[in-house]
Amino acid sequence: MEKIILTGDRPTGKLHLGHYVGSLRRRVELQNSGLFDKIFVMIADAQALTDNADNPEKVRQNVIEVALDYLSAGIDPEKTTIFIQSQVPELAELAFYYMNLVTVSRVQRNPTVKTEIKMRNFEQSIPVGFFCYPVSQASDITAFKATTVPVGEDQAPMIELTREIVARFNHIYGPTLVEPEIMLPDNEACMRLPGTDGKAKMSKSLGNCIYLSDTAKDLAKKVKSMYTDPLHVNIEDPGHLEGNTPFIYLDAFCRDEHFATYLPDYANLDELKAHYTRGGLGDGTVKKFLINVLNETLEPLRERRAYYEQHIPEVYEILKKGSEHARATAAVTLDEVRKAMKIDYFDDPSLIAEQAARYAQAK
Ligand code: TRP
């Protein structure tokens, strides 16, 4: 069986370091590993509209932002199909059929949807489209016969639901669809990179993000203002690592080679941590090191971004080509689905003859 990846993001904001360590970096590794036959990365504009119906301009702007973030992160359109969800109408059709296979109470139990409803204060006024997005996500995944879905843990309930829909579909209509597997991030620090203020998650509304598109200057400013250890007042004081934002970032980003280049007094992060805990190491030194590590990491991204920002029509062309290719792929699955569901009236040559014979006999 072919190994196929599908994943994506809602275009509701620029991508930040949390996205980079949580998903983007991994996607690029998977893309370059040669282990997968096909890779699809989707800009989920239709899903973004499920809770931004009154803000189409925001979604439109962020489609290009996210595309630039993808390309600068190293997603290579020669190897990965980058496409826009709304440009593949087959996905909406498939979602419509899947809705018959899922109960309202099943979606109501989805913990991610529950949290989102609370966060958005929807309680009594949940848009039907928003409520159904987990079902539509199942169609995003299965239309491409994806075997592997690399996502964060918050997406686990969607993959679970997808597997249930696939099992039910195949049971009722015959084997047609592929059950996908979730692929979670492999590094603990990457699962949830905190914001620069030390709060649980980077989020645009909290203003605690470092964006992939930030300049070196913005980045330095943000790192210098990072939340560290409030008990570590004087350099000589013993410091605490728990909840210490720069150290959490170092866990996610730094490699031993970075020490040789930027902080040769230490061989690795363990030595740096030991010194900090013992006392005698200031936050300024740690932050300066982190700035160097982050700049080195982001430099290749900044170079690619500078190119694509000067070639915006080329970016739209990549999205258009990708969407056409994605559409052709999804169309093949939809043909199989319609056949299995017996709604392929004009493609089944035996149907007309059979019906004609039945009525001829009845005469
Ligand atoms: N729900 C995902 C997010 O919030 C975006 C998404 C839509 C997605 N369809 C998908 C992710 C299919 C993986 C597979 O970012």
Question: How would you describe this protein?
Answer:
This protein is mainly α and 363 residues long. It has helices spanning 17-33, 45-49, 56-73, 90-98, 104-108, 111-119, 128-131, 133-142, 156-173, 188-191, 216-224, 245-253, 256-262, 269-278, 283-309, 312-340, 349-362; strands spanning 4-9, 38-43, 81-84, 148-150, 181-183. The chain has a three-stranded parallel beta sheet. A two-stranded parallel sheet has the order 4-5. Helix 3 (56-73) packs across helix 15. The protein binds tryptophan. Residues 6-10, 44, 47, 137, 140-141, 149, 151, 155 line the site of tryptophan.
* Number of separate strands: 5
Distance between the termini: 49 Å
Q: What value does the Rg take, in angstroms?
A: 24 Å
Sequence of strands across the biggest β-sheet? 1-2-3
Summed over residues and divided by their number, the pLDDT gives a mean of: 95
Overall body shape:
elongated
Query: What is the number of helices?
Result: 17
Assembly category: single chain
Q: Give the proportion of residues in helices.
A: 55-70%
In short:
The protein is mostly helical.
List keywords for this structure.
363 residues, mainly alpha, three-stranded parallel sheet, two-stranded parallel ribbon, 17 helices, binds tryptophan
Explain the layout of strands and helices:
Layout: E1 4-9, H1 17-33, E2 38-43, H2 45-49, H3 56-73, E3 81-84, H4 90-98, H5 104-108, H6 111-119, H7 128-131, H8 133-142, E4 148-150, H9 156-173, E5 181-183, H10 188-191, H11 216-224, H12 245-253, H13 256-262, H14 269-278, H15 283-309, H16 312-340, H17 349-362
Parallel strand pairs: 1-2, 2-3, 4-5
Bound molecules: tryptophan.
Tryptophan (TRP) binds near residues 7, 8, 137, 141 and 155.
